[in-house]
Amino acid sequence: MQRAETPPATILTSFFAICQSDPFARTLLYSEMPRYYTWNASSKNLQRRKQGDAVPGYPDVRSTDALGRMSTVHPKNDECFYLRLLLVNVRGPTSFERRTVNGVIFPKYRAACEELNLLENDTHWDTTIPEAIISASPSQIRTLLAVIISTCFPLNPCNLSHKYKDNMSEDILHQIRVSSRNHDIEMNEEIHNRALLLIEDICYLMCGSLLIRLGMPAPNREMNDAFNRELEREREYDHQELDLVVQTNVPLLNSQQKEVYDTLMKAIDDENGGLYFLDAPGGTGKTFLMSVVLATVRARSNTAVAVASSGIAAHC
Predict the structure, then answer these.
(1) Minimum mean pLDDT range among 53-62, 70-79, 300-309
(2) What residues does each domain of the chain span?
(3) Where are the alpha helices (DSSP H) in 31-169?
(4) Helix/strand/coil for 160
(5) CB neighbourhood size of 242 (10 A)
(6) How far apart are the C-alpha atoms of 142 and 148, rounded to whole Å?
(7) Which residues form the DNA helicase Pif1-like DEAD-box helicase domain (predicted)?
(8) Total-model pTM
(9) Own/partner pairs, 198-207, CB within 8 angstroms, 24+ separation
């Protein structure tokens, strides 16, 4: 804890310190500092070189041909990457809090870089995506956006996603209209969310990052996607067709099947719930009976999800 509160000096923090008191140091970029200063490892501070060429206007400063080397930082390590970008462009920084541009203190290094115009804008992406929309499918547009935000690091990926969200979701809307047999369904937030889920899956395959790490809002990914897909399917049944199935098949139940059917439907109608175990030899019509029960529940616009557990067929 003490080391965290008072960390040891490094070359970078010493450069910050010397920029606070040395007018010449405030004219330098961090990468230029080794030409004029040396690092004293024992005292952990920077000292002016005593040998080398004189620097015009600074009689006490000597210059050499020493080169400063800075470690590379991957853009995925975002704040470190933008801190490094500031260090190679801003002269005379005095602390890690050097995020002030034109008198405005920015909360993050990236914002300071944007204000200093050190980052490209998204104009070229605003040209690329509309060109793709002319001939590409929604799936291809989603893949293109995933490639852009995963590998090209646009300035504002949220704006790109929001601007073209309808174009990236048209196939999803079409699938829902066909499966539900309802062509009046319009584009909505749930459809946009599905598109974001697909984009996030592509990004994760390409770079191992979720959208929230790439400057995008996280899609609403439920804990159990498979169960949610089943629930969604429950809303897409044709109730008139199910009514016909019930009217046709209920009279075909034998006496024992009808007893089970009536018992289950009464439990549902009375909202009593319960756990029922149906035991009968193979080929006696258990599956047929349960298909009629499921059809009856679904025809009433209720939810009936058929699942399997531990190798034993189950219906709930």
Answers:
(1) 300-309
(2) 2-115, 123-221, 239-315
(3) 78-87, 109-115, 123-135, 138-147, 157-163
(4) helix
(5) 18
(6) 10
(7) 253-314
(8) 0.47
(9) 198/139, 198/142, 199/142, 199/145, 199/146, 199/149, 199/161, 199/168, 202/142, 202/143, 202/146, 202/150, 203/146, 203/149, 203/150, 206/146, 206/147, 206/150, 206/151, 207/76, 207/150, 207/151
Dihedral through CA 229, CA 235, CA 239, CA 245, nearest 10? 20
Block residue for tokens 């749930």:
190
**Rounded distance, CA 174 to CA 186, Å?**
10
User: CB–CB of 303/297 below 8 Å?
Assistant: yes
87 within 8 A of 30, measured Cβ to Cβ:
yes
CA–CA distance, 315 with 276 (Å, rounded to integer):
10
The whole-number average pLDDT for the span 93-106 is 72
pLDDT digits (tens, 9 = 90+) for 157-212: 888 889 999 999 999 999 888 888 888 889 988 889 989 999 988 888 888 788 88
Q: How many CA atoms lie within 13 A of 5 on its CB side?
A: 2
CA distances, 127 to each of 136, 157, 162, 215 (Å): 14, 14, 15, 20
Tokens 């109608």 found at: 269
- The per-residue pLDDT for range 199-211, each reduced to its tens digit, is 988 888 888 788 8
- What angle, rounded to 10 degrees, do the helices at 286-299 and 255-269 form? 30
Helix, strand, or coil (residue 43): coil
User: 113: left (phi > 0), else alpha (psi -120 to 50), else beta?
Assistant: alpha
Which residue in the block uniquely carries the two structure tokens 């079409």? 174
Instruction: Please report the beta strands in the chain, taking only residues with DSSP state E, as ranges in sequence order.
Output: 37-40, 45-48, 53-55, 58-63, 100-101, 104-105, 306-309, 312-315
The span from the first CA to the last CA of the chain, in angstroms, equals: 55
